[in-house]
Amino acid sequence: MIKKIFGTFGTQALNAICNFVTLWFGTHYLGAEAWGIGGIVLLDVSILLIGVEFLAGSGLVYFTPRKSYRTLFKITYIWSAIIVALYALAIYICSFIHTGFEFIPEGYHGIVLLLVFIYSLHNFNLTTLLGKERVGTKNILFIIQFLTQMSSMLFYIFVLNIRNADAFIFSLMTGYIVGYLSGLTQIWPYLKDKGNDSIRETIREMFKFGSIIQMSTLVSMLNRRLSFLIIKSFWGDAKVGVYNAASQVSEAPKMIGQSIAMVQFSKISNLTDNELAAKITVQLLKIAMVLTAICIFIVCIIPTSVYSWLFTADFAAMRVVMIALAPGVVFMAANTVFCHYFSGVNMPKYNLYGALVGLIVTIPSLYLLIPPFGMVGAGIAASLTHLATIIYQWIVFKKINKTSAKELLVTKEDVKALVIGIKNVFLADKQ
Questions:
Q1: What is the pLDDT of residues 206-263, one digit of tens each?
Q2: Nearest to 149 by CA among 179, 123, 186, 110
Q3: DSSP assignments along 79-143, one per residue
Q4: pLDDT at 99 over 80
Q5: How far is CA 308 from CA 20, 241, 316, 317, 324, in A?
Q6: Fewer C-beta neighbours within 10 Å, C or N terminus of the chain?
Q7: What number of other Cβ atoms are within 10 A of residue 407's Cβ?
Q8: For residue 24, what are the CA distances in angstroms to 31, 128, 219, 307?
Q9: What is the rounded radius of gyration, in angstroms, for the C-alpha atoms of the chain?
């Protein structure tokens, strides 16, 4: 498992480097306003994907070892097409209702829907490979996706001379398409599966499981979208761009928690021993929080002048925003591990309840903190939201597994186990 975590972390680290390169070119050649629009489009795609993932989201990791692959494939493709068609109909109807509020930036409705559809198919490949415990293959496909996104954005900027949000948005589309087509070559053998699971019964089980997971994801996304909306209403798209850039850099350390939780989810979903699942979760929780805290500390002590030099003077305010976001990044690592535990043992309802607790904190925090403190207030509100969420998750986890607070302390045994695991990884590579 340690080897898979290291492989996944390496993938996430490479992704972080590519995101940094993309951010650098975006801030220098597209500007704060365009970067703000691009950030909103990407977030809107993530929110709309939740409709697809009510049936065909991360729950596929849980169902892949348990259901016919061909059945899952059919359900995902048909459901994705239906949801995107419903979105298109809703947008068409809303075009006749002038509310003064645009959920999707003007002119990007069609490409946002296309992004949602293509990514939903690409995500099917990634999640089902994870369910098959083919973590390495899943990582390679992810690498193909984000390397394509980065290189294509540079192509759009320097070859096609596109110097607005389109360069970033078109690069997302290119990355999703190339990643999806590459993934098809890996899942094709599984489609020969002749399983005869009932489609109706499978849909019922998937919806019951996935709806709870995606409701929690929706609430979390709305938390983030609300902060963008309030910043925009008070300060405009340029400030959204700065806040988005600060979020991207400060959240880079979250790749540690994501890498750990991804392998954790794959492992726990294939276990029947809940006691072992809880033990694994506690060990990984400590590792995720400690390593994330170290990384975010390093990010925060970099001087403001460095960020101003890297991303232009328009983004000089990034550092103070990142300091406000820093505690939330550590809490987010814990949240990710807890979420994957509850999903892996078929108790996703606690993720939803935790997200709702966070939303209860988010709404008053944003309205109280953004007007006087601007982007910094939004960062503090985000940290408070993640804190409230993990407090709830810990209370539930402790109650279910009879875990004591002492078990959260990092011990010599934890360090020894990690060191042995790392040594085994390098020894295996040499053999």
A1: 887 767 766 777 677 676 667 777 777 777 777 777 887 888 787 777 777 777 777 7
A2: 179
A3: HHHHHHHHHHHHHHHHTTS--S--SSPTT-HHHHHHHHHHHHHHHHHHHHHHHTT-HHHHHHHHH
A4: no
A5: 14, 14, 4, 8, 18
A6: C
A7: 15
A8: 10, 33, 30, 10
A9: 21
